[in-house]
Amino acid sequence: MPATVLHREQQATRRWHPATEIIVLACALLLVFGIPSPVVPITIIGATLITATVSPTVRLRSWVIGVGVVCLPTLLVLCVVQGLFYPGAEVIVLWQLGPARLTVEGLAIAVQIWLRVAALVSLCALFGLGADSARLFDGLRALRLPTSVAYICASTIGLVPLIRARTQQIVEARASHGWDVSSWRVRTTLLPGIVTGLFTSVLIEVEQRHEVLEQRGLTESTAATSLQDHSDGPDQWLLRRGVPIITVVLVVCSVAGVLPLPTADQLIGGV
Q1: Which structural domain range is residue 85 located in?
Q2: How many domains does the chain have?
Q3: Which end of the chain is less congested by CB atoms within 10 angstroms, N or C?
Q4: pLDDT value, residue 249
């Protein structure tokens, strides 16, 4: 047991400060949506994949499933809507069958939108799976956000396990009363009641947590005391201030047209 605790402490010390993680996440999202080149989201998706692979707190399988469930249907819809039915008149047609035609312009828009969505989902999944409510609260308070805002954001992550557990309890309760919960038709029928029960229980849970915080005197004037111990140092201090500056410079250079990155049209047209 002491060896296990020591191993966990060593893993915690290798992690960034939560404030650093939040800043890097925000800057990465700004790059994804601020620079109109597929190179940026591809790079960020690759970086998140490598991070999820080597991270001691994120399960690669959970990350892949979460990203795949959201991104694969989005890719299919975008390819059909934009790739096959792009409304432009002057387009380069790659393939056509009746009213459906695969164009470079439509495919470029579909690829760019999907890559941005995939990068967004990848980053948020990596952050969400590797963070807990206490880490997020400490990070937001370290960034000098109001206590109420930090609490609301941290509670959102903290309620995810609660929602999962309550959903499982409701499904098991229905199964004990003879419902065939293995059938998707039955689950669809039970969905409105499950959502209503979850919504009510979540509201009660949030109200109870708010009352506990008020009783403990947690207000905007309360000193920002960390709930957990986090590693920090001059390197992370520089990272938290340097990354936003570099991000703004890159976005400005992209807007000014001096950042030599290919667009989706150029990449697909070249292929």
Answers
A1: 17-145
A2: 2
A3: N
A4: 94
Average pLDDT over residues 127-147: 80
Does this model's pTM top 0.85?
no
Based on the fold, state whether residues 134 and 174 are members of the same structural domain. Answer: no
Measured torsion, CA atoms of residues 244, 250, 251, 257, in degrees rounded to the nearest 10: 170
Same domain, 53 and 125: yes
Phi/psi at 101 (nearest 5 deg)? Answer: -145, 135
Q: Are 60 and 53 in contact (CB under 8 A)?
A: yes
Asked whether residue 55 falls in the same domain as residue 168, the answer is: no
At 91, is the secondary structure helix, strand, or coil?
coil
3-state secondary structure of 101: strand
Q: Does some domain include residue 225?
A: no
Separation of alpha carbons 18 and 22, rounded Å: 6
Same domain, 31 and 122: yes
Q: Torsions phi, psi of 256, nearest 5?
A: -75, -10
**Same domain for 101 and 23:** yes
- Looking at the structure, do residues 102 and 167 belong to the same domain, yes or no? no
Residue 127 CB neighbour total at 10 angstroms: 20
Fill in the amino acid letter for 263.
T
**From CA 190, how far away is CA 22, in angstroms rounded?**
37
pLDDT tens-digit readout, 4-57: 433 444 444 467 888 888 999 999 999 999 998 889 999 999 999 999 998 888
List Cα–Cα distances, 124 to 118, 141, 207, 226, in angstroms. Answer: 10, 20, 26, 23
Contacts of 125 (CB under 8 A, 6+ apart): 48, 63, 66, 67
Q: Which residue, among 234, 247, 238, 230, has the nearest Cα to 136 in the 3D structure?
A: 230
Over residues 49-93, the pLDDT tens digits come to 999 998 888 888 888 888 888 888 888 887 777 666 666 666 666
User: CA-based Rg of the chain, rounded to a whole angstrom?
Assistant: 23
In the chain, the amino acid numbered 52 is A
